[in-house]
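S2.1 Query sequence (Proteophosphoglycan)
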Amino acid sequence: MTDTDKAGNLLAQIPKGEGKAPPPVHLWNPDFCGDIDMRIARDGTWYYMGTPIGRKPMVKLFSTIIRRDGDKYVLVTPVEMVGIQVDDAPFVAVSLQVEGAGEAQVLRFITNVEDEVVAGSEHPLRVELDALTEEPAPYLLVRTNLEALVHRNVFYQLVELAVVREIDGKAWLGVWSSGEFFPIGPQPD
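Output structure tokens follow.
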């Protein structure tokens, strides 16, 4: 079976969703059929056989059947599972809506595939620092084991919203959402 056949067959096997929730990929355990030449770049662009997938509805459809098993990303249907490559995170948080202020503040993120995610205990924000450059890389948990890289412009919005809070005797900059405090980084001296 060629990669083209695998991708075409995969599309035909995706169950039609009745609501907005993604299909229950965590319940599906079909045979692994190998890797296909599909990649999600760090900027959220999906590629098939080296060519960007230009049809947004197709990208959105594929985004509903992605799952992470350990360090491997797969697209899964009830009858087939194929491996794909993800450069960083499968989604990118591209916009932010802020409601309220202070500890009552709610941060609603929109991803590149139009998922809406409210940061909170079920969808935490975290920031990794690059060991060499110390550049921050912020992430938001979108679904089980799947994160969105927070776009640089959105991260700047978070920094503008940041407040100082003491954690374990150290001052941290961070943001509130849904009653949770998410540290962005230590407060500069």
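The chain has three helices and 15 strands. The radius of gyration is 18 Å.
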